[in-house]
Write a structure and sequence with these properties.
The structure holds two protein chains of two kinds.
Chain A (H helix, E strand, L loop, with lengths): L4 E2 L10 H7 L1 H4 L11 H21 L6 E4 L2 H15 L6 E5 L4 H12 L3 E5 L9 H7 L4 E5 L13 H11 L2 E5 L11 H4 L3 E5 L10 E5 L28 H39 L3 E3 L10 E6 L4 H7 L3 E2 L1 E2 L12 H5 L4 H5 L1 E5 L6 H20 L2 H7 L7 E2 L4
Helix pairs in contact in A: 1-9, 3-9, 4-5, 9-13
Chain B lengths: L4 H8 L14 E8 L4 E9 L6 E9 L2 H14 L4 H5 L3 H8 L6 H25 L10 E2 L2
Helix pairs in contact in B: 1-2, 2-5, 4-5
The chains are: A alpha/beta, B alpha+beta.
């Protein structure tokens, strides 16, 4: 087993060697500009892009013409939300989203608010899912867009996308979903889910960084977007800029591999995740799983180790790459807004670790992580005044703390 | 974030982890911070009543590596100091010794607060023995 162990597959994934192999010729041999219409270099590049477009479309049950290539999901989210807000301004100015969306969605909505849009940020329930009743109640005759992520990046919880899609359809409102964490991991079909716009990214599914796509429905309804990057009119005028041919080829290959291997991979990773969770629960008390276990990505686990602070935990397992929702690990010095939104208390957010398993995670690695975490959590709890107080029978919630 | 070698050393080999009997008249306990802020330090000193010198110091900390290191270092510095010398320890001394980056300065502030709270508690107990009511400067159960 090689150290360090990578268990942060929500953050990014390594490029699959088969993806890299597919990309390589497009750097040096077939380097043409896909927009060059009058020589073979351009034709080769264009053909490669169109193959990739089909591969991406096939993965999400779309048609190739509905795929717009972008620089990644942040751009896709910006294009979808700002593009709709601008294009449908006459129709209304209200957008519905939710508090645990990725910042690429939340900050885009905040920017639109400054420009006069009205945004409803739906809360989530304890399990991390929105309430459909609250969604229905939030809809007004000015609502032009619902944007709710398919799966959350911190807790891996899947939203009821098909149900949201049905509501949006019924009310004639466009529905966008940031599906970055879900595409390639669980089946996603834009028609079954009644999604009108969907963001995805290559580097979350074993493709390269710097490339992504936005699915834009062409029929029933035909979705129009105001372009956010102006120029040569590439990608049906929705996203100008010379196409990143190598990246797009990589995204296409990654999508093809995901389509073929998703089912077996998901099953394998779910077993590993259950092994990880069971092993930790067997060794340690007072563990809290953040978010629904039932509605969750198969490779995703987020646990709070009560009475132990996340950054000190990460320091103790420095040969294992995972993430924490602790304030100390964030630039803002605030604990994770996603975990806070679950209402479990800030203290549990500080104690949380996100595990993301992936294509190269082994059983041996999972066992190593269980042992290592057990040792470090026990050691830190011995050092924790909170653990000591709880063991003495003190109710921490009744304490009056001296804060700054 | 990269940690200084001194922070790593205190994290891996913390000095004086543990608890002293908190009801002992010569033991002062400081409990500062809050779980929802991600930092709680308990720092205790045992003072020799004859000499006024801190004989022993212990800590337990819930917090990041720098918080653990700050409190560990504080206990190391407290031993052998008089109560007044202990009160002269400044958070900036801890920052300098551990090479804490700006985002971790609050850890050193908390350690200084813990020292002051522990000594206030010790002093309050001494006053109380003399029959003067006193208030403690640390976290306590709500009435």
């Amino acid at each position: 087993m090689k150290l360090p162990i990578y268990m942060d597959y929500h953050a990014t994934t390594p490029v699959d060697p088969r993806v890299l192999e597919a990309m390589t010729p497009y750097f040096t041999q077939h380097f043409g500009n896909a927009a060059s219409r009058n020589h073979s270099f351009g034709w080769e590049a264009e053909e490669a892009v169109e193959t990739a477009r089909k591969q991406v479309a096939d993965l999400i049950g779309a048609s190739a013409k509905e795929i717009i290539f972008t620089s990644g999901a942040t751009e896709s989210n910006n294009l979808a939300i700002k593009g709709v807000a601008e294009m449908y301004r006459e129709k209304g100015n209200h957008i519905i989203t939710c508090v645990i969306e990725h910042k690429a969605v939340i900050d885009t909505c905040k920017k639109l608010e400054k420009q006069g849009a009205r945004v409803t940020y739906l809360p989530v329930q304890k399990d991390g899912r929105i309430s459909l009743d609250e969604l229905r109640a939030a809809i007004t005759d000015k609502t032009i867009l619902i944007t709710i992520m398919t799966a959350n990046n911190e807790i891996g919880v899947l939203q009821p996308i098909a149900e949201i899609g049905a509501i949006a359809k019924e009310k004639g409102i466009l529905f966008h979903t940031d599906a970055v964490q879900a595409v390639g991991k669980v089946p996603v079909s834009v028609n079954d889910l009644k999604v009108d716009l969907l963001s995805l990214s290559a580097h979350k599914m074993y493709g390269p960084k710097g490339v992504g796509a936005l699915y834009v429905r062409r029929r029933n309804p035909r979705v129009l977007l105001a372009e956010q990057i102006s120029g040569g009119g590439h990608e049906r005028g929705m996203r100008s800029g010379t196409l990143n041919v190598t990246g797009i080829v990589g995204l296409g290959k990654a999508a093809e591999l995901a389509k073929n291997e998703m089912a077996s991979e998901a099953e394998r990773l779910k077993k590993l995740r259950e092994r990880l969770s069971a092993g930790l629960h067997e060794n340690l008390d007072e563990l809290y799983i953040n978010g629904s276990l039932e509605h969750r990505l198969p490779h995703s686990l987020n646990i709070s180790f009560a009475y132990v602070e996340g950054e000190s935990l990460l320091m103790g397992i420095n040969d294992v790459a995972v993430s924490s929702g602790s304030a100390c690990t964030s630039a803002s010095l605030e604990p994770s807004y996603v975990l806070k939104a679950l209402g479990a208390g800030d203290d549990l957010a500080h104690s949380s670790i996100r595990f993301g398993l992936g294509r190269w995670t082994t059983e041996e690695e999972v066992d190593y992580v269980i042992e290592k975490l057990t040792t470090v959590v026990r050691r830190l709890r011995e050092m924790s005044p909170l653990y000591e107080m709880v063991k003495e029978g003190v109710d921490l919630s009744k304490m009056q703390w001296v804060t700054h | 974030m990269a940690y200084s070698s001194k922070v790593v050393d205190h994290y891996e080999n913390p000095r004086n982890v543990g608890s002293l009997p908190k009801d002992d008249a010569n033991v002062g306990t400081g409990l500062v911070g809050a779980p929802e802020c991600g930092d709680v330090m308990k720092l205790q000193v045992k003072v020799n009543p004859e000499t006024g010198v801190i004989d022993d110091a212990k800590f337990k900390t819930f917090g990041c590596g720098s918080a653990i290191a700050s409190s560990s270092l504080a206990t190391e510095w407290l031993k052998g100091k008089t109560v007044d010398q202990a009160l002269a320890i400044k958070n900036t001394d801890i920052v300098a010794e551990l090479s804490l980056p700006p985002v971790k300065i609050h850890c050193s502030v908390l350690a200084e607060d813990a020292i002051k709270a522990a000594i206030a508690d010790y002093k309050a107990k001494q006053e109380k023995d003399k029959g003067v009511p006193a208030s403690a400067g640390h976290a306590q159960p709500n009435a």
